[in-house]
Amino acid sequence: MFKRLFGRERQANRAITEALYGEIVAAARQSPFYSDWGVPDTPLGRFEMLSLHMFLFQHRMRGEEGASQAIAQILIDEFFLDIDHSLRELGISDIGVPKRMKKLAKMYYGRTAAYSDSLDRGDVASLAAALTRNVRPDTEAWPEAGALADYVLRVEKDLASQPSAQIQAGKLSFPAAHAA
């Protein structure tokens, strides 16, 4: 039992989790989002892009069982731990973090429902509208929303083509976001 808890298997699982989460974070930090597509380069804008990429990963793993399901759960837990850590780095007090975490979790799950519905229906216009509402709530029209929606569709197809065994081994790749 101790070998399982503290041994190589646990370290290998942690390495897989870190590799997958690292790819999700790297995809969310691609500069075209912020420099070309008008995503605000703020903590909230970065949360939106990280949430979007976490959603895309979770959407890919949806319906899978066994190791894939376990990995999906571990990564969503890692995502929320990362958000918690980021709030603390921003200077939010220990008392204020749970309240904000609840709000951010509600935001995340609301977005996943809207994005998933749009993707399942193949409705690019609805996806662009949902992205506008969530990423740029400060504006009614966001011309770059279409480019981001196209990117989301491209990512969904790309992730769907990646074998589960590859993902379970910690190998995941997101396509590059290119300026429009």
From TrEMBL:
What InterPro entries does UniProt report for this protein, alphabetically?
Answer: Ubiq_cyt_c_chap, Ubiqinol_cyt_c_chaperone_CPB3, Ubq_cyt-c_CBP3-rel
Where would I find the Ubiquinol-cytochrome c chaperone domain in this sequence?
Answer: 36-174
Pfam families to which the protein is assigned, alphabetical: Ubiq_cyt_C_chap
> What family classification does the UniProt entry report for this protein?
Belongs to the CBP3 family. Belongs to the UPF0174 family.
> What is the protein name for this chain?
Ubiquinol-cytochrome C chaperone family protein
Q: Lineage of this protein's species?
A: Bacteria, Pseudomonadati, Pseudomonadota, Alphaproteobacteria, Hyphomicrobiales
